[in-house]
Specification:
- A hairpin with a 2-residue loop joins β1 and β2.
- The chain is mostly helical.
- The termini are far apart.
- Helices cover 62% and strands 6% of the residues.
- The strands form 2 sheets. The chain has a 6-stranded mixed sheet. The chain has a two-stranded antiparallel sheet with strand order 1-2.
Length: 568
C-alpha cells in the first residue's frame, strides 16, 4: 500500500509538472502573441507570403507582393495560412505554428530526458528548455528556426529511440521529423541529422547506430512527403532548380549566393547564438559537456551522452565553416544543450553528488550572476536615453531583476540545501523574468512594426485608384504590407529592386512594373493619388506635392496632397 501511495503521489506530481509547463508556455508565448503586432523584417514577410497563398489559392509557388519568393520551402507558409484561415489574419494566428513548434521541442526534451537519462530527468530537461530565454524569444516569432528545431529534434529522437529500444518503427518518427524539417528549411535539415548520427557512430565505433537510417519503408515515406512539392514547383518554374538547390543551399554555404543580402557573421557566431538561445543555462553548459565527456564510458548512459555531445558539437562545427552564419541557426542545437544541463541537474540532486561537479556548477553560475548584474546596471544607465535601443534596455532593466534575485537566493540556500536549489532558483527567476518582459514589450514598443502606418492609410479612406509605394527594399516594410487590405496591393517599390530578397523575382515581366526608378515614381505621382512610406528621414528626394501624414521613429508616411480622400 505504501508503494502504491508513493506511485500515485509521483503520478500526480508528474501531471502537475506537465500542467505547470503548459500554463507557463501559454502565458509566455501565446498571450503576448495576441498583443504585439507583427514586426519587420521577417515576421511580416513570411506572414504575407502565407496570406497571399490564401488570397490566390496558389499553394505551390510562394509570392510576396505578387513577386515569386523561392528562398525557403513552404511548410511554414502552409501552416501559417491554415492558422489564419481558422483564426483570422492576425498576428496571433501567424505566430501559432512557431509556438506549437516550441511546444514540440519542449515535449521532445521531456521524452528524451526520460529515455536517455531516466524518469527523474524528464521534467528537468523540459524545464531547462522552457526557461531558455533566447529560445522563447525566437519561438514567439513567425520564423523558420523554431519549426526547424522541432523537426530536427523529433527526427533525432526517433532515430535514437529506434536504436535504443531496438524498434525500427521509430524510424518512421525519425523520417517524419526529417520531412518536416526539410520542408521547413530545405536540405540543411538532412545534412544536420545525418551529420549528428555519423559523428555518433564514429565516436562509439559502432556502425550499427546508423541502422535506423536504412529502413526502406520510412525512407519511402520521407520521399513521398518531400518530393511532390519540389517536383511541382520545378515543373512550373524551371528556374527554381538553380535558385533553390544551388544558389540558396550550396551558394549560401560557400558565401557566393546572389544577391548577398546577409552578413557572413564571425566564426564564433554559432557559439554566441547558442549562448543567446540558452540563457541562463549557457553558463552551466560547459559543465554539462564536461560531465557528459567524463561519463561517456558508462555502460548505461554513455551512448546517450555521446549522442548529446554529437548533437551539440557537430552542427556548431558545420555552421562555423558556413559562409552564412546567423545567431538563430543554432536553434536545432538547443534541445541537446537542455538535456546536457538536465544531466548535470540530475547528478547534483542525487543521493551522492560529486563535490567537484557541484563546485563547477556554483562557479559557472557565479560568473553568470556577475555578468547579469553588470548588464543590468548598464541597461539602467540607458533609461534616460531615447530610441529603440534605449527601449530595449528599459525592458531588460525592468524585467531582469527576478533572475538576479533568484540567483542570489540560490547562492544563499546552496550551502545548506545543495547545488540543486541554486539551479531551481535560476529556473524560477528566468521564468518570472520572461513573463515580466513580455508584459512590457507592447507598451514600450521595443520591436519595429509599421502596423500603425497601415492603419493610418486605411483610416483616410483611399479613393478608387489610389496606390501605395515604399522607399527602398520592400522587405524593410513587411509588416506594413501585411496590414494593408488587398485593395491597396500590390504596392510599388521605389529604387528597391537590387540587393534585396525580391531581386530575383523582380525580373519577371509580370511584376517588373512594380519596381520604379525615382523618375518613374515622380511621374506616377502626377497621375495617381499615392501613399508613400519612407525611412525617417527619407533617403531619396520626395516628389513634388508630398505631405507628411504620420510616422514612427524609423518610418514616415506621406501622401499626395488633396487628392486621396473619397468624396463624402
Amino acid at each position: 500500500m505504501l508503494w502504491r501511495g508513493n506511485a500515485q503521489e509521483g503520478g500526480w506530481r508528474r501531471r502537475g509538472e506537465v500542467v505547470g509547463l503548459v500554463a507557463y508556455l501559454i502565458a509566455g508565448l501565446l498571450v503576448p502573441a495576441t498583443l504585439i503586432p507583427l514586426t519587420t523584417t521577417n515576421e511580416g514577410l513570411y506572414a504575407q507570403v502565407a496570406r497571399e497563398m490564401l488570397e490566390t489559392g496558389d499553394w505551390v509557388v510562394p509570392h510576396f507582393n505578387s513577386v515569386v519568393y523561392f528562398e525557403k520551402p513552404p511548410l511554414l507558409y502552409w501552416l501559417v495560412a491554415v492558422s489564419m484561415r481558422l483564426f483570422g489574419e492576425n498576428a496571433a494566428a501567424a505566430r501559432l505554428p512557431s509556438i506549437l513548434g516550441a511546444a514540440v521541442v519542449v515535449a521532445t526534451a521531456f521524452w528524451l530526458g526520460g529515455l536517455m537519462l531516466g524518469e527523474s530527468a524528464r521534467a528537468l530537461a523540459a524545464l531547462v528548455m522552457a526557461t531558455s530565454l533566447g529560445f522563447l524569444l525566437l519561438a514567439g516569432q513567425v520564423m523558420f528556426d523554431c519549426l526547424l528545431a522541432a523537426g530536427v529534434a523529433v527526427s533525432l529522437a526517433g532515430f535514437y529511440a529506434a536504436w535504443q529500444l531496438n524498434r525500427r518503427s521509430f524510424s518512421y518518427l525519425g523520417y517524419l521529423g526529417l520531412a518536416a524539417a526539410t520542408m521547413t528549411k530545405g536540405l540543411a535539415a538532412p545534412v544536420l541529422v545525418v551529420l549528428v548520427l555519423v559523428c555518433w557512430a564514429a565516436l562509439g565505433r559502432d556502425v550499427g547506430r546508423l541502422r535506423p537510417l536504412a529502413a526502406a519503408g520510412p525512407v519511402c515515406v520521407y520521399l513521398l512527403l518531400v518530393v511532390p512539392w519540389h517536383l511541382a514547383i520545378s515543373l512550373r518554374r524551371p528556374d527554381f532548380i538553380w535558385f533553390y538547390f544551388y544558389n540558396e543551399h550550396i551558394g549560401r554555404f560557400l558565401g557566393t549566393r546572389q544577391p548577398k543580402d546577409y552578413g557572413a557573421g564571425h566564426w564564433f557566431t554559432p557559439i554566441l547564438g547558442l549562448v543567446f538561445i540558452t540563457i541562463p543555462w549557457a553558463f552551466v553548459l560547459p559543465v554539462g559537456v564536461y560531465n557528459a565527456w567524463r561519463r561517456r564510458r558508462d555502460v548505461q548512459t554513455g551512448p546517450s551522452l555521446e549522442f548529446l555531445l554529437c548533437w551539440l558539437i557537430a552542427p556548431l562545427i558545420f555552421f562555423t565553416f558556413s559562409g552564412n552564419r546567423q545567431y538563430a541557426y543554432s536553434m536545432p542545437v538547443a534541445p541537446a544543450a537542455a538535456l546536457l544541463v538536465a544531466a548535470v541537474w540530475q547528478a547534483v540532486r542525487s543521493d551522492d553528488p560529486s563535490a567537484r561537479l557541484q563546485a563547477a556548477v556554483r562557479t559557472s553560475t557565479g560568473v553568470f550572476f556577475l555578468v547579469t548584474a553588470v548588464g543590468w546596471l548598464a541597461c539602467g544607465l540607458k533609461l534616460r536615453a531615447e530610441g529603440a535601443s534605449a527601449a530595449r534596455a528599459g525592458v531588460i532593466f525592468m524585467s531582469l531583476w527576478p533572475l538576479i534575485v533568484g540567483l542570489a537566493h540560490g547562492f544563499v540556500l546552496s550551502p545548506s540545501r545543495g547545488t540543486a536549489s541554486l539551479l531551481k532558483s535560476t529556473a524560477t527567476g528566468a521564468a518570472i523574468t520572461w513573463l515580466l518582459a513580455v508584459s512590457l514589450l507592447r507598451p514600450i514598443g521595443v520591436f519595429q512594426s509599421e502596423w500603425s502606418l497601415a492603419r493610418d492609410v486605411i483610416a483616410h479612406n483611399p479613393a478608387p485608384g489610389a496606390v501605395v509605394a515604399v522607399e527602398g527594399r520592400l522587405e524593410d516594410y513587411s509588416s506594413f504590407v501585411f496590414y494593408l487590405p488587398r485593395s491597396l496591393r500590390p504596392i510599388y517599390v521605389v529604387e528597391g529592386r537590387m540587393g534585396g530578397d525580391l531581386q530575383y523575382g523582380s525580373t519577371d515581366p509580370e511584376v517588373r512594373h512594380l519596381f520604379l526608378s525615382q523618375a518613374q515614381f515622380a511621374e506616377l505621382c502626377t497621375r495617381r493619388p499615392v501613399f508613400y512610406v519612407t525611412h525617417n528621414p527619407p533617403r531619396l528626394p520626395l516628389p513634388p506635392g508630398m505631405e507628411k501624414m504620420s510616422g514612427t521613429h524609423k518610418r514616415t508616411l506621406w501622401r499626395c496632397g488633396g487628392t486621396l480622400l473619397r468624396p463624402p
